[in-house]
Design goal:
This protein is an all-alpha fold and about 140 residues long. The chain is built from 6 helices and no strands. The termini are far apart.
Amino acid sequence: MTPRSDAEFEAERIGSPSRARRVDLRRTLYSFRHAGRGFAWALSSQANLRVHFVAAAVVLIAALVLRFSVIEFVALVLCFTVVVAAELFNTTLEVLIDYAWPEHHPMIGRAKDVAAAAVLVAAAGAAIVGVLLFARHILLQLS
């Protein structure tokens, strides 16, 4: 059965073989719409995610001013992407844990701490890459 309306498409079972075999633009657009809605919610509700985006914008503007090469820009963008993805996974885990276990439990706290540590590791790695790239350009400007 091929769904003819949005409601029929949404009602069709996600794991069904007919839905999995079918490649159509509507299904792709639905997944982008859901991803966009999730991203917008995370951006509006997570202060740390907004901080990461502001930091990325400042760093990219500074990289433009210092005339970074294309490969250096790619390195910066990849670093930002990893940090934002880690933050989104952390947010996902926290939301699911808060929903499934509203009461406090030490193991739940540990899981949240480990997810936050993953974001910290990604951000520290991105900062190290940034310092190395910017140090090179700043030292060239000073000499």
